[in-house]
Design a protein that fits this description.
By secondary structure, the chain is mainly alpha-helical. It has one domain. The chain is built from six helices and no strands. α1 (3-28) packs antiparallel against α3, α1 crosses α5 and α5 (80-91) packs antiparallel against α6. It is flat. The chain starts with a helix and ends with a helix.
């Protein structure tokens, strides 16, 4: 399988998992919950179940890519989920994205590019 397909599918898996993270955050809201409260919410919330389904779908894509490429390439590429979560947190959840966080994402992007070029 070509590196471009590996990168694309890994990015797809990371994007799906990242959207699931946003779905989880929207489900739990802003107020702190107890462990029991989280458990109860997990059982009755459609958003939680949609997030879980997204995680399963992302895992299936990820496992497929793992069957085609080395873990030492795929796993670092999957770190693109940090980029997606940061962007979605800012746009969807209206969270403040500081310059330090942006710098961290730039470092992650640089690392992902280096890993992709090494395959």
């Amino acid at each position: 399988m070509s590196i471009y397909i590996i990168i694309f599918l890994t990015l797809v898996a990371a994007a799906i998992v990242s959207v699931s993270q946003i779905t989880f955050k929207k489900a739990v809201g802003k107020k702190p919950l107890s462990i029991v409260g989280v458990f109860g919410l997990a059982l009755r919330s459609k958003k939680i179940w949609i997030g879980v389904a997204g995680y399963v779908l992302g895992l299936i894509v990820y496992l497929y890519v793992l069957s085609e490429a080395p873990l030492s390439v795929v796993y670092p590429l999957f770190a693109s989920s940090f980029i997606f979560v940061l962007a979605l947190s800012g746009f969807v959840l209206k969270e403040h994205v500081s310059s330090r966080r942006l710098l961290g994402v730039i470092v992650v992007v640089f690392g992902i590019v280096l890993i992709a070029l090494s395959y």
